Amino acid sequence: xxxxxxxxxxxxxxxxxxxxxxxxxxxxxxxxxxxxxxxxxxxxxxxxxxxxxxxxxxxxxxxxxxxxxxxxxxxxxxxx
Length: 80
Fold this sequence. Notes:
The chain is mainly alpha-helical.
């Protein structure tokens, strides 16, 4: 009886518990993401050399997803 409204459902003590939804799938791995992980591992292994650290930060800025601006708030004022 899952298609009935809540107030019309009948309690069934023998019913199986509802299954929890599956956790969301991890994001797909991309070449730039794998390369970023490689660079982070390289910096971790070699230490935080300033030049390598600067290149890593620049790479992460270049491969970051675009920032999505929130939609403008609607106002009740008429448009003139």
